[in-house]
Amino acid sequence: MTDQQPIRVAIAGEALIDFISETDGRFNPCLGGAVYNLARALARQGMGTLYLNPFSSDQLGQALMQQMLDDGVELAQTQAVQAVTSLAVVNLNDSGHPSYAFYRDGVADRQITSVQMNADCAHHASTIELICTGALALDARDEHVYLPWLSDQKAAGKCIVVDANLRPSVMPDLKAYRHCVHHFLDVADIIKVSDEDLLALEIPGQSALEKAHHLLNSTHANLIALTLGADGAWLLSATGDAYFGKENAALNIIDTVGAGDSFLAGLLAALSHLKPVGTPFNAFLTSLHPEQATMALSHAIASASLCVQARGCVPPTWSQASQWALNHSSQSQTSASVQSTHPT
Q: How many other CB atoms are found less than 10 A from the CB of residue 50?
C-alpha cells in the first residue's frame, strides 16, 4: 500500500467471517462484513481510514485485523479482545446475489461504546471529514452505541455517511428495526440505499427512484446514492439534481459480495478528490456541479464493476477504478433529462 494518509474517514460497524456457499455444498470462509469491506475499500482507494471497533484474539479475528493493516487501514483498537469473531453464512443464488444468516451474540466487534469512539475520533479531529457506518450497526439492539456517536460527530461538523444495507431477514423485531434505521437516516448527510433497502423500509413510491426521492425529501441528507444492481445507480442531490449511470456492456459477474461497499468507497473517494481543499464536505455537496457528480458516479460504478468480477470482496484501488472508468464509458443521464421522473 501507499504511505499512510492523514485520517479523513472514521468508520464503525461489523467485522466478520463470511462462510460463502459453493456449488458442491461446501462453504468458503472469507473476511467480510459490510462495514469491514467499506473500510478496506476506502483505504485501497487512497483514503486515510480509521476503523473503530476491536477484533477478537481468536484466529479469525487476527486474520481480519491483519487484512485491515495490509490494506492500509489504521486501527483505533490495536489490543485484541477475548470475545469471539462474528460469523455469517452466505448463500448465493444463480445470479450471485447473497442471502445471510448471522451469529453475533457476545462478539468482538460489538465490544465498543460511543464514548470510546468519540475519544478515538478526537485524536484525528483536525483531519477527519467523513464519519461512516451502516449495515449491522443499524440493529436496534446497538442503537444506543452508534446513534449518539453519529449525533456527536455531526454536531462537531463532520459529514455523516450511512449505508442502509439492510438485513431484515435476521432482525428479531422488524418494526423496531425499521424505526431504528430511520433514526440513523435522519442524521445522515450522505445515504447509500439499494432498491431492496427501500422496499424493506416501506418507503412510499411506485418505483425505486420515486422512493429514493421521497427519502431524500423526508430527511436532511445532502446526497442519496441509489444502487440498482446491474441496472445502474442514481445520485440524488438535495438541490433537486439527479444523475444516472450504468455500465454499457454486461459484466462477467462472479458474485456481488462487497459490490455496494466498493461502490460507496469509490463514490466517497471521488468526491474527496473533487472537493476543493479547505471546503467543508457538506458545503461541497450543496454546491456539487453536474460534471463533478457525473465523475463521482462513474468512479463509484467502476469500483463496483471491478468487485463483482472477483470472488468475494476484492475492492479495487483508486488507479484500477479510474482506469476502468476511463476505458469503459458508462451510460449516463443528468438532471436535465430526468426531471420528469421526480415525484410530485
A: 25
Residue 340 has pLDDT above 60, yes or no: no
Question: In this model, does residue 329 exceed pLDDT 70?
Answer: no
Q: What is the mean predicted confidence (pLDDT) over 328-333?
A: 66
Residue appearing with cell numbers 444502487: 227
Based on the structure, what is the number of domains in the chain? Answer: 1
Amino acid at 58: D
Number of residues assigned to the chain: 344
Residue 224 belongs to domain with CATH number: 3.40.1190.20
Please state whether the predicted TM-score (pTM) of the whole model is above 0.90: yes
Cβ contact 244:232 at 8 Å: yes
Percent of the chain whose pLDDT exceeds 90: 75
Count of CB atoms within 10 A of residue 340's CB?
5
Q: Which residue, among 280, 271, 278, 275, has the nearest Cα to 298 in the 3D structure?
A: 271
Distance CA 215, CA 204 (A): 9
CB of 320 closer than 8 Å to CB of 45: no
Neighbours of 140 (CB within 10 A): 18
Which burial class, exposed, middle or buried, applies to 45 when counting CB atoms under 10 A from its CB (0-12, 13-18, 19+)? buried
Q: Which range marks the domain in which residue 303 is found?
A: 7-14+35-49+65-78+112-341
Cα separation, 245 vs 226, in Å, equals 11
**What span, in angstroms and rounded, lies between the C-alpha atoms of 292 and 290?**
5
* pLDDT for 1: 43
CB-based contact 28:255 (threshold 8 Å): no
